[in-house]
Every structure is written in structure tokens, then in C-alpha cells.
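In this supplementary section we document a worked example of the pipeline. Step one takes a protein sequence of length 183 as its only input; no multiple sequence alignment statistics are reported here. Step two produces a three-dimensional model, which step three serialises into C-alpha cells for compact storage. The input and output of this example are shown verbatim.
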Amino acid sequence: MSEEIFSTMETKMEKTIDALKKDFIQIRSGKANPAMIEDIKAEYYGAATPLNQLGNITTPEPRMLVITPYDKSSMKEIERAILSSGLGFTPSNDGSVIRIILPELTGERRKELAKVVKTKSEEKKVAIRNIRRDANDDLKKESDSFSQDEIKAMQDKVQKITDSFIAKIDELAKDKEKEVLTV
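The serialised model returned by step three reads:
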């Protein structure tokens, strides 16, 4: 039973790391990346639909994103969704494609993005700690079938696993912060 608890805990922690990586992809670092906007949802026939399902997103130049909608009638909605996304992008529509030119990052904006990186990583650390707490609670429920020493050893294992995932988050955050602050 305890191995099942460890396995579940590690799976949840891996998903948290994956979510952090996805969050970091959406944080601008000077180069255009389709993942920055693919999850923005636009209204399409009454349903909120991600941009990557409404058109092809490409990066023809390092600081430009181009969206080629599958259905030209959805262009206005795609533009509206990008403007209201809060990412600070201004799309331009030429009738067949939507272009987003990413402005050069200022030093002040880079510092703001570094703060966002720290905030996102701290949120994920809290999630990891919550997973640790849940695992420890599950171990306590199973405490009838284990001795005190075994329970202590299992709690130590939970803590070691947690520490390794916190270290992964710190490493990812350090790398992303360096990427964001590099001119």
C-alpha cells in the first residue's frame, strides 16, 4: 500500500512540474514561440476554442507570430481574444493572416517577467508541499499496519521525494529567470 502512495505522489508531482514548464513557455523571453498564445481561447460558434484549434500558428521570424485561420470568418474573434488575453500583444490583420510582432523587451519589463517566474515557481512549490501533506496523511491512515520506525522511514522518503521536486522547480525557475533577464 505504501508503494502505491509513493507512486501516486510522484505522478502528481510530475504533473505539477509539467504545468510549471507550460507556464514558463507562455512567459516571453525575447523570442516568439507558438505556445505563448496557443491556449488563448476565442469565441467560435458559441464555444470558447483554443487558438491552436482555430488556425495554424507559426514563427516566420524570431520576433513574429503568424496565425493562419482555418476559417477566415473567425479572424475578428481571434484578434479580440489576443487583445483581451492580457499578454500585451497587438495583432494586425491583413485579411488572410493575423500577425503579432513582439516588441523588444525593456529592462523594466524583463524584471517584471522575472517576478512572474518567481511567483509561478512559488505557486508550484506550494502545490508540491500540498501533495506531500496528502501523502503523509495517507501514510497516517495506514499506520495501523506499520511500526513507528517504518512510518518514520516512509515519511523521510516522502520528504526526500518532495525535496527533489522542489530542487527541480528551483532549477527550472533559475534557468527561466536567466533566459528572461538575458538581453
